[in-house]
TrEMBL record:
<dbReference type="Pfam" id="PF00989">
    <property type="entry name" value="PAS"/>
</dbReference>
<dbReference type="InterPro" id="IPR013767">
    <property type="entry name" value="PAS_fold"/>
</dbReference>
<keyword id="KW-0812">Transmembrane</keyword>
<keyword id="KW-1133">Transmembrane helix</keyword>
<dbReference type="InterPro" id="IPR000160">
    <property type="entry name" value="GGDEF_dom"/>
</dbReference>
<dbReference type="Pfam" id="PF02743">
    <property type="entry name" value="dCache_1"/>
</dbReference>
<dbReference type="InterPro" id="IPR029787">
    <property type="entry name" value="Nucleotide_cyclase"/>
</dbReference>
<feature type="domain" description="HAMP">
    <location>
        <begin position="330"/>
        <end position="383"/>
    </location>
</feature>
<keyword id="KW-1003">Cell membrane</keyword>
<feature type="coiled-coil region">
    <location>
        <begin position="375"/>
        <end position="430"/>
    </location>
</feature>
<feature type="transmembrane region" description="Helical">
    <location>
        <begin position="310"/>
        <end position="328"/>
    </location>
</feature>
<feature type="transmembrane region" description="Helical">
    <location>
        <begin position="22"/>
        <end position="45"/>
    </location>
</feature>
<dbReference type="InterPro" id="IPR000700">
    <property type="entry name" value="PAS-assoc_C"/>
</dbReference>
<dbReference type="InterPro" id="IPR052163">
    <property type="entry name" value="DGC-Regulatory_Protein"/>
</dbReference>
<keyword id="KW-0175">Coiled coil</keyword>
<dbReference type="InterPro" id="IPR003660">
    <property type="entry name" value="HAMP_dom"/>
</dbReference>
<feature type="domain" description="PAC">
    <location>
        <begin position="505"/>
        <end position="555"/>
    </location>
</feature>
Amino acid sequence: MSRRTAAGAILSIKKLSSTLSLSSWVTIGVVLSVLITTASVLALVDQFTRSYARHEAEARLNQLAWQMQDALDRSMGERYSDVKLLSQRPSIRQAKDPERMRAVFNELQRNVPNYAWIGFATPDGNVLAAANGLLEGQSVEQRPWFQKGQKDFFVGDYHPAVLLEKKLPVMSDPWRFVDIATPIMGPDGQFQGVLGVHLSWTWARDLAKKLLNPANDRYDVEIMIVRDDGTVLLGPRELEEKKISIDSFKASLRLPSGSMRELGEDGQHYLTGFARTGLNSEYTEMKWSVLVRQREQIAMSGFKDLERQVLFVGCIVGLLLMALAFFMTRRLVAPMNALSAALERRATGDHSAEIPIVSTYYEIQLLSTTLSTMVQREENYLREVRSLNEGLEQRVEDRTRRLHETAIALQQALDNQRENQIRLEESETELRAILQNAHDAFIAIDEDGMVLEWNRQAEQLLGWAHKEAVGKELAELIIPFEQRELHRRGMTHFLNTGEGVVINNRIEINALRRDGKELPIEMTVGYVRRRAGHLFIAFLHDITERQAFRNSLQEMALTDILTGLPNRRAFTEKLPEAMARAMREPQQMGLLFMDIDGFKGINDKYGHVAGDELLVKFAERLIDAVREVDTVARLAGDEFTVILERLHSPADAMGVAEKILVSMRRPFVLTAATVSVSSSIGVAIYEPSRHTDQDALVAQADKAMYAAKRAGKNRVEWNTEESPV
């Protein structure tokens, strides 16, 4: 090739690319990279925050639905207990004194105003006695509660009033009831009649107002109680006693609780939490669906504000990065422009133009030095090329003839190989399709632990794309850091001995995702011997939901539902652990045993709902009065315990007990009233040298508490062989 020809080629290339210089291309490339990166990060942050906001909103609505369901179940349990206790009263079982029976009914109705009617019907269906004398002497023989209540305890579903509607006071809402009835047997075992209670539906409305109206005021949520046939028993006025068929209601018939996004009957999208009542109660007929929903636009309003802020900040950062990229590119490409200008002059025939040696940075210095050397060698190279061209044509002809003969033989061999290859590729394609569409993640590795295969489910489960995972060590991709060395030793042991605890077994382990989070999986590993070594194949299955279910069951078994404190079972596990720590350190440990003075009076006067509220507030003050290292538990009813660890002396336990007494003397502000109660506390000290067992320590604290009650309540009593310091 002559210099004139080379110069012409360079000029042609320059004409084709004259619109933009190298610095412009680099600047455009960097700016585009910044734009794409910024846009990708903003899109990823937007998607994550949107998903997180929706998940939090659904979890909040599901919690509200569960609280309403729990309140309904507990309240129905209390009504169940009331009727059972009432049926055992001697005056009711004898059924001979209507006035005395009426007085009992009136007393219960005053304590529980939601009992709209309480009465006793004789075997012939006539009302013998009733609260306030309503319906006395009238026949209820055809009423379902009387017919079914003759055989067994009966709880009737939501229904309108029939006989009572004209006799009860006029209300803004029509009277609706839940019936409770039970047969009454006399002291001699003879059937005396049926005890019936009509629970007013205002009971459910009061529960909804008490538990969920604060959430409704704050978040604009709608609460509905729906019967199995789709009838709305409690909810928005325009929907009550009408049937609905929305997705959340259908889901509540299959699942005990949950949440979802759905399209409402008004055409708007809602986030809905749901729960199912009556699943763990003795009155299995009372199964309602509790739905708590909120318009998606309101639920996601906070996300929209965050989205605007993220977009604004992202745009500002992107502009700053583009400006910086433009400036840096211009500085870096300037030496290349000087070198390019010198090359263009030489290409046009200006042999006097020298290639400058640019020393701005190492790469451009190396390039300019190399180009200068190449120019000096150009003449020598061209002379050698001319001499070689003279004998090249003959040699090319000889070589061409030999290549033609070889090509014919090679084509025949290739045809046979292609046919075999096609059959092999078809089999491989079928196998890959099966593995790619498998429900479990499939991974194949060689005996060095390098990934050979990685199906679609593995990409979704572990976050690594196929092209990213293949060729990398499996331990670096999915094995948690602290277990990698154990994994490698296990592989080496199996290759040396053929024995391993993982091979051909199904095990549950944690796998590491690409985002750094650990994922519980069930893994099955097999292997195949090959001529080039072993091939290991593994199937991985996500068991996150299975483990979450196990953990939730364990947590529920150890937690008191009302107060959220550890329950009796958790207490019996934590006390031996605390005693063991005290023995190891060694240090003294204290146990406080207490209950609420006057708790039964609060229950009797204001009802069980007020009693439950008092228990919750008592537990909150108890937690505030002790240290974080101490353990507070609720055993049953109004009985509580506190495990005091790391005591320097018995006086420390007495000081904590006195602090609790002072805290409990302050009035408790309940929904029904403001009440004042106190507590009786028994103190027992565990000293490792005495080898006291768990039961003995609990008995000492319990005995001390009863001593405090006998001594006048609202005090602390000590139970030990030695007096406190």
